[in-house]
């Protein structure tokens, strides 16, 4: 490991630290922001725990948990790259259909199965990939795995508002009054990196009843269609619990224009150029709204 130089931290030029980290495949930008504010990141040997912070990927040394991160240099020409002996970075986009019990992390100290294990080994070896957004262990459905920090940022940041659609099976027969409360929204309490708590408003873009099941043997159930444009931790489960509905099954069936099609639980597919262009077009359109 090379020793970090005693250089000052740039605060007004270069690339935003969280973007440089995301481009290095450490996670989506919002995940990288959490790593920074938790005090896990050093730049040139100094801990950075406040934002904004800017770095020069070509000269600054960034460490995460005391390990040096190899930062890709942006906008490097083909000629410059050839002179430097480097190679063009390949952007990879994998859509997986996450089964129940698989966790949305890149590794787990408890040895539980994680979403990267669903990605073909050849792709994992080629680039450092990470999941875009989260699905808890009990939830199933679509999840994007990539090394494209910019697209990950656009798919998760609230200002772009990319819709994610879910099918939710609840216990009991949902009422119109309960759905009205969900549409109106509510405040959810969330922990912060420093151990304090903050409340943030949550609402469903749309929620409708697909079918009610009256079943004396197994119990009454309701199948709902829910669309979110901004997600908080376990938001659907928490909101439904607030109105008296318990989630039995939760599946994400769409991310923007992407749907599972014939992708079965546990399977993964490499997205082609057309699908990636559709995603980019969706983020562009949402950003202009």
Shape: globular
Number of domains: 3
Q: Biggest sheet: strands, sense, closure? A: 9 strands, mixed
Distance between the termini: 46 Å
CATH class of the largest domain: Alpha Beta
CATH homologous superfamily classification of the largest domain: Pseudouridine synthase I, catalytic domain, N-terminal subdomain
Query: Structural class per helix/strand content?
Result: alpha+beta
Overall mean pLDDT = 86
Number of helical segments with 4 or more residues: 8
* Beta-strand share of residues: 25-35%
Per CATH, the architecture of the largest domain is 2-Layer Sandwich
Order of helices and strands: EHHEEEEEHEHEEHEHEEEEHEEEH
Uncertain ranges: 1-8, 76-86
Helical percentage = 10-25%
The Cα radius of gyration reads: 21 Å
Q: What is the CATH topology descriptor of the largest domain? A: Alpha-Beta Plaits
Count of individual beta strands: 17
Question: What is the fold's blueprint, element by element?
Answer:
Layout: E1 15-16, H1 17-23, H2 29-37, E2 41-43, E3 46-48, E4 54-55, E5 62-64, E6 67-69, H3 78-84, E7 93-98, H4 121-126, E8 130-132, E9 140-146, H5 149-156, E10 164-171, H6 176-184, E11 186-191, E12 197-202, E13 206-213, E14 221-228, H7 235-242, E15 247-255, E16 258-259, E17 268-270, H8 273-288
Parallel strand pairs: 9-15
Antiparallel strand pairs: 1-4, 2-3, 2-5, 5-6, 7-9, 7-17, 8-9, 10-14, 10-15, 11-12, 13-14, 15-16
């Amino acid at each position: 490991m090379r020793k970090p130089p005693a250089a000052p931290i740039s605060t007004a030029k270069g690339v935003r630290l969280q973007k440089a980290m995301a481009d290095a495949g450490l996670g989506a930008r919002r995940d990288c922001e959490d790593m920074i504010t938790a005090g896990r990141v050093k730049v040139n040997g100094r801990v950075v725990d406040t934002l904004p912070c800017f770095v020069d990927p070509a000269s600054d040394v960034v460490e995460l948990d005391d390990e040096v991160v190899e930062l890709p240099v942006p906008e490097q020409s083909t000629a410059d790259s050839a002179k430097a002996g480097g190679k063009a970075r390949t952007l990879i986009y994998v859509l997986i259909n996450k089964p129940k019990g698989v966790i949305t992390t890149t590794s787990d100290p408890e040895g539980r199965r994680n979403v990267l294990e669903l990605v073909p080994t050849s792709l994992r070896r080629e680039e450092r990939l990470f999941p875009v957004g989260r699905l808890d262990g009990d939830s199933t459905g679509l999840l994007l795995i990539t090394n494209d920090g910019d697209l990950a940022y656009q798919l998760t940041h609230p200002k772009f508002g990319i819709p994610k659609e879910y099918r939710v099976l609840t216990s009991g027969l949902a009422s119109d009054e309960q759905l009205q409360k969900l549409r109106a929204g509510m405040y959810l309490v969330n922990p912060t990196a420093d151990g304090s708590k903050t409340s943030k408003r949550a609402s469903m873009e749309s929620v409708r009843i697909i079918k009610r099941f009256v079943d004396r043997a197994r119990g009454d159930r309701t199948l709902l269609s829910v669309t979110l444009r901004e997600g908080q931790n376990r938001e659907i489960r928490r909101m439904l619990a607030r109105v008296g509905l318990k989630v039995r099954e939760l599946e994400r069936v769409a991310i923007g224009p992407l749907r599972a099609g014939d992708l079965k639980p546990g399977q993964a597919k490499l997205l082609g150029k057309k699908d990636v262009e559709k995603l980019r077009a969706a983020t562009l359109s949402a950003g202009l709204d």
